[in-house]
Amino acid sequence: MVSVPPQVRLISFVALFAFFQSASAIQQLLAFDKISEGAYRHESIPTAIDVITRLGNGQIVLNTTSADVTVANDKQKWNTTVSDDDSLWEDPNYLSQFDAIAFVMTADKDDGSTTLLSPQAKVNFAKYIQNGGGFIGFHVACGCLYDTPFYGRLVGAYFDYHPEIQPVGIKALTNNNPSTSKFPASFQINEEVYHYRTDPRLLPSAPIVLLSNSTVFNDPQAANRTRSDGPPPRPLAWVRSGNLLDAPSTPLGQGMDDPEYGPKYSGGPGRMFYTSLGHLNETWQQIPMQAHVAGGISWVMASPTCRSRKGDSPLKEQSSPSDVPNSAIRSRRYHSKR
Ligand SMILES: *[C@@H]1O[C@H](CO)[C@@H](O)[C@H](O)[C@H]1NC(C)=O
Ligand SMILES: *[C@@H]1O[C@H](CO)[C@@H](O)[C@H](O)[C@H]1NC(C)=O
Ligand SMILES: *[C@@H]1O[C@H](CO)[C@@H](O)[C@H](O)[C@H]1NC(C)=O
Ligand SMILES: *[C@@H]1O[C@H](CO)[C@@H](O)[C@H](O)[C@H]1NC(C)=O
Ligand SMILES: *[C@@H]1O[C@H](CO)[C@@H](O)[C@H](O)[C@H]1NC(C)=O
Q1: What's the predicted TM-score (pTM) here?
Q2: CA–CA separation, 14 vs 20, rounded Å?
């Protein structure tokens, strides 16, 4: 028998333990649902949070007729932490616990007079994405952080306006993503069809557009638009992979470009998923929506750049003070519950 020195045994035990811990660790999702004061709070947020949580823990069971094979089961798929407390983000180690962050109908005021995150939270969020963390946005997630260009590029475009809620047919443009692989051929819902201030397809990390409208909808404001989000098909949900924060060489305008003398952000090797659907409770209760959401979240979390898939933290480097404007360095240890 070969004798192994105790310290070697200890080291291999520790390595093995670390391996199993990371290999078996359940993936972690932060469901962030902060609404700035005075911004629109969707009534469907609690329903959305409930559905996202139960899709993750296996309480909502989807089968392979209605959902992608990768999410159709009763197993735990991810663990959801629900929070609207961005002061926690000022500790870079907080975000590093999560494989992906979902903005669940987070909202700022449309005129840009509010901003969801503190300057330090924004810096840590950018670093989290630059280190491979995943991003998911639901519905008005494109209607916040209007003053934060890297966020506009991360989500893909900022919200412009929507016509009134009305029945609209939604169709999948591809079956090659778990989010839409089983999307029904004709899906009719009451929804706000979103328009954006810019075309997400102009970003260097081009989106794969997942959903569009299959029917014409009533949109009187369209005739008077000053902003354009590009030609058909109308993007209603999309995924992107890699270079999530990169700006195109031709400025996009509408708050999407880094300021000339301000912080510049690029990179972001992970994945993102955005869907504009989700205004009403009823939307979240429908199986095609649940399959869309479960597939999108799982696809983002399947990125090899995610925390639990690389076996270490996406935030290895701490933010250096030079990244933070002086006004941003402040302590906010205590906060009131919103
Ligand atoms: C939506 O569902 C939430 C509970 O999840 C409920 O509080 C709210 O009243 C519902 N809104 C509508 C319009 O039904
Ligand atoms: C799959 O799920 C759908 C929606 O819940 C249901 O209508 C269908 O009967 C299920 N099919 C099977 C084979 O269980
Ligand atoms: C799931 O998240 C909750 C809330 O953050 C946390 O308390 C719990 O420990 C997590 N469970 C697992 C199995 O990761
Ligand atoms: C989508 O809606 C727009 C605006 O109503 C319309 O111009 C377009 O034809 C619709 N697309 C389809 C495939 O119906
Ligand atoms: C579009 O602009 C015209 C001219 O200013 C105005 O008469 C019309 O009411 C506007 N339509 C909408 C839907 O805002």
Answers
A1: 0.88
A2: 10
Cis peptide before 233 (omega within 30 of 0): yes
Q: What is the pLDDT of residues 249-301, one digit of tens each?
A: 999 999 999 999 999 999 999 999 999 999 999 999 999 999 999 999 999 99
The first and second tokens of residue 315, run together, are 């935030």
Ligand nearest to the CA of 286: 2
Structure tokens at 310: 């690389």
DSSP letter for each residue of 170-188: EEES-SSSTTTTT--SSEE
The gap between the terminal CA atoms of the chain, to the nearest Å, is 63
Phi/psi for 19 (5° steps) reads: -65, -50
- Please report the pLDDT score of residue 186 as a whole number: 85
| Cross-strand partners of 143 | none
- The SS3 assignment for 210 reads strand
- The whole-angstrom distance between residue 18's C-alpha and the CA centroid of its chain comes to 28
For the chain, the maximum distance between any two Cα atoms, rounded to a whole number of angstroms, is 84
Q: The tokens 């590029």 sit on which residue?
A: 153
The CATH superfamily assigned to 26-328 is Class I glutamine amidotransferase (GATase) domain (3.40.50.880)
Beta strand 187-191 with 195-196 is unpaired
The SS3 call for residue 300 is helix
| Type of residue found at 218 | N
Torsion of CA 121, 103, 155, 315, to 10 degrees: 40
Residues with CB under 6 A from ligand 2: 63, 65-66, 287
What are the pocket residues of ligand 4 if the criterion is a CB atom closer than 6 Å to any ligand atom?
213-217, 219, 232, 234
Q: Which two tokens stand for residue 306?
A: 């995610």
